[in-house]
């Protein structure tokens, strides 16, 4: 499977694929909001996009994680920049914005 295909000006499909099976699900609204956020923030690196149920269990995700429906992405953000990143993400309409502090990422999700 080859997911190295551009979805939008700044994101490729493989950035959202599950690392264990390379499957991808991605809600268009998540991509649109990430692209808008990227336009204001600058480059962003997705550390976790779609997760199949088994990968979600493996990484300790919650049982009904929005990662499993392609409606959530974790983005690498240094701890000291998470506050401003979260403010911007909230302005861009993500319904869930959760900073993980010293773990170095922010969880972003949209409603289905
Ligand atoms: Zn998988
Ligand atoms: Zn997450």
TrEMBL record:
Domain named Peptidase M15A C-terminal is located at 10-108
The superkingdom of the source organism is Bacteria
This protein is called Peptidase M15
Q: Which Pfam families match?
A: Peptidase_M15_3
Q: Which InterPro entries match?
A: Peptidase_M15A_C (IPR013230), Zn_M74/Hedgehog-like (IPR009045)
Organism in which the protein naturally occurs: Dethiosulfovibrio salsuginis
């Amino acid at each position: 499977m080859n997911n190295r295909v551009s979805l939008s000006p700044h994101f490729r499909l493989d950035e959202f694929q599950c690392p264990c099976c390379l499957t991808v699900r991605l809600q268009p609204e998540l991509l649109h909001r990430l692209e808008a956020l990227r336009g204001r923030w600058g480059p962003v690196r997705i550390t976790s996009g779609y997760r199949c149920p088994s990968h979600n269990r493996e990484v300790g995700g919650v049982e009904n994680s929005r990662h499993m429906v392609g409606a959530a992405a974790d983005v690498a953000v240094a701890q000291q920049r998470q506050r401003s990143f979260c403010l911007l993400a909230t302005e861009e309409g993500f319904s869930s914005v959760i900073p993980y502090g010293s773990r170095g990422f922010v969880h972003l999700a949209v409603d289905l």
